[in-house]
Task: inverse folding
C-alpha cells in the first residue's frame, strides 16, 4: 500500500474508532431497555418475560465471545469485527418487526450473536496498536463508550418514540452501525500496513509490545489449554461474579425508575443518563490512574489491583437503595456504584491484555468475557423472578457484595507477576499436542 502523509499519534485515532463502534453497540442493545416500560404496557410483556428476552440476548452473546475470539485470531480483527458490526446493525433494525415477547426474543438472539465481537475486537486492537502503559487508557475509553451509548440512548430513544413511534426508534439506532462499518473498513489496518502511520510511532508500538508478529498464521493455542493457569481462572471467575451489576443497571434501570420509584417515561429519560455519565468518568479515570501508577514504576499487576480494591470496597454503598431515598439521593448512589464498577471493569479487562501474548489475546479475552455473559445471563433471569414475585430489595442487596468477593478471587489467583507469554513456553503447553500452526 502506498504511504501517505503520516498522522501523528495515529493509535489514538484507532481508539476513537473503536470508541465510536462501542457507543453504537450499546445504543443498539439498550434501545429495548428504554422502551421496555412502554412495550410492557402496549404488548403485555411481564417482568418474567422481559427477563427471558434479556436471556435471549445474553446466551448467544456469551457463547459468541469464545467463537469471536477464535475467528479474530485466525482471520484478523478488521474482517471479523466489521462483518459482526454489520450483522448486529441489521439485527437491531429488525426489532421493529416484532410484536410479542417471542418476536423480541428472536431478534435479541440475532443481536447477541454478533455484539460480543466488539469487545473481543477491541482487545485485539489494544494488543496490535498500544503499548502497556496506554492500554488502561484505551480500555477506559472503550468502557466509557459503553456508558456513553447507555447515556445517549434514553433521551434519543424516548424522543424518537414520542415523535415517530417505537418501531422507528429501532430502525434509526440500528442504521447508525452500517455507517460505522464503512468507516472501519476504510480506516483500520495493522500498524505495519497502515499508510498513515509515522515511523517513530510504529517503532514505539513494536518496542514496547515486543517482536511477536500479529499477522494471520502466528501461533494459535487451543483455548482449553489456558485453563491450566490460575491467572485464567482468576480473570474468568471475577467476570462471572462482578459483571451482573452492570447487566442489571443496563437492562433494568429504566424499569426500576419508572416502576419502583414512580417516574414517568419523560422524567426517566431526563435523568437516567446521570448514572451513565458517572460510569463514563469511572472508566476513564480508572484506566488513567492505573496507567499513572505504572508510569511511576509500580508493577502492572499491582497497579491494576490497587484500583480494583478501591472500587470493590465502595460497591456496598449501593445497598442503601433499599431504603428508597429521595430521587436525587437514589441517582447519586446509582451513579457512585456505576462509577466505581466501571473503574473496576476497565482494569480487569486490561489485565487480560497485560498477561497474555498478542497472538492469542482475542481468544483468551473471548473466554474471559464469556464469564461476564454467564454471570449476566444467570442474574437477569433470577432478577426477573425476584422482582415479579417480590421487589428489587434482594437484588440490590446481592449486588452490593459481588465485587468484594470477586476481588478476593483476583487476589488469590492472580498472585504471580509472571506473564503468560513466559508460561506458554513451558513444555506442558508448547508440545505439539497443545499448539498448532
Result:
Amino acid at each position: 500500500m502506498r504511504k501517505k502523509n503520516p498522522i501523528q499519534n495515529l493509535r489514538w485515532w484507532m481508539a476513537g474508532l473503536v470508541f465510536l463502534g462501542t457507543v453504537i453497540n450499546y445504543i443498539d442493545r439498550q434501545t429495548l431497555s428504554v422502551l421496555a416500560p412502554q412495550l410492557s404496557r402496549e404488548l403485555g410483556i411481564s417482568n418474567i418475560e422481559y427477563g427471558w428476552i434479556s436471556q435471549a440476548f445474553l446466551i448467544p452473546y456469551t457463547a459468541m465471545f469464545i467463537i469471536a475470539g477464535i475467528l479474530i485470531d485466525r482471520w484478523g480483527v478488521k474482517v471479523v469485527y466489521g462483518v459482526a458490526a454489520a450483522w448486529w446493525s441489521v439485527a437491531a433494525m429488525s426489532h421493529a418487526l416484532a410484536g410479542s415477547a417471542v418476536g423480541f426474543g428472536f431478534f435479541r438472539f440475532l443481536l447477541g450473536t454478533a455484539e460480543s465481537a466488539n469487545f473481543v475486537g477491541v482487545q485485539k486492537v489494544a494488543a496490535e496498536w498500544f503499548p502497556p502503559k496506554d492500554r488502561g487508557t484505551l480500555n477506559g475509553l472503550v468502557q466509557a463508550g459503553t456508558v456513553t451509548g447507555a447515556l445517549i440512548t434514553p433521551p434519543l430513544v424516548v424522543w424518537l418514540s414520542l415523535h415517530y413511534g417505537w418501531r422507528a426508534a429501532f430502525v434509526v439506532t440500528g442504521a447508525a452501525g452500517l455507517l460505522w462499518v464503512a468507516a472501519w473498513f476504510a480506516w483500520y489496518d495493522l500498524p505495519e500496513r497502515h499508510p498513515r502511520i509515522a515511523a517513530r510511532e510504529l517503532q514505539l508500538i513494536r518496542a514496547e509490545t515486543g517482536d511477536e508478529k500479529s499477522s494471520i498464521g502466528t501461533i494459535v493455542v487451543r483455548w482449553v489449554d489456558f485453563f491450566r493457569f490460575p491467572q485464567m481462572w482468576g480473570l474468568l471467575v471475577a467476570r462471572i461474579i462482578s459483571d451482573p451489576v452492570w447487566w442489571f443497571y443496563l437492562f433494568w434501570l429504566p424499569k426500576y425508575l419508572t416502576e419502583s420509584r414512580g417516574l414517568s417515561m419523560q422524567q426517566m429519560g431526563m435523568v437516567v443518563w446521570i448514572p451513565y455519565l458517572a460510569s463514563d468518568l469511572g472508566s476513564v479515570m480508572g484506566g488513567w490512574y492505573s496507567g499513572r501508577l505504572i508510569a511511576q514504576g509500580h508493577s502492572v499487576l499491582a497497579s491494576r489491583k490497587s484500583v480494583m480494591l478501591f472500587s470493590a470496597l465502595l460497591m456496598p454503598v449501593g445497598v442503601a437503595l433499599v431504603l428508597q431515598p429521595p430521587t436525587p439521593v437514589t441517582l447519586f448512589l446509582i451513579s457512585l456504584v456505576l462509577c466505581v464498577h466501571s473503574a473496576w471493569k476497565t482494569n480487569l479487562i486490561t489485565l487480560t491484555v497485560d498477561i497474555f501474548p498478542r497472538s492469542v489475546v482475542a481468544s483468551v479475552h473471548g473466554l474471559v468475557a464469556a464469564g461476564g455473559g454467564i454471570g449476566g445471563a444467570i442474574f437477569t433471569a433470577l432478577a426477573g423472578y425476584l422482582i415479579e414475585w417480590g421487589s428489587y430489595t434482594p437484588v440490590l442487596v446481592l449486588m452490593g457484595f459481588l465485587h468484594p468477593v470477586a476481588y478476593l478471587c483476583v487476589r488469590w489467583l492472580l498472585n504471580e507477576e509472571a506473564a503468560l507469554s513466559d508460561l506458554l513456553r513451558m513444555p506442558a503447553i508448547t508440545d505439539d499436542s497443545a499448539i498448532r500452526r
Q: What stands out?
A: The radius of gyration is 21 Å. Residues 10-43 form the longest helix (34 residues). The chain has 18 helices and two strands. The chain has one domain: 10-436.
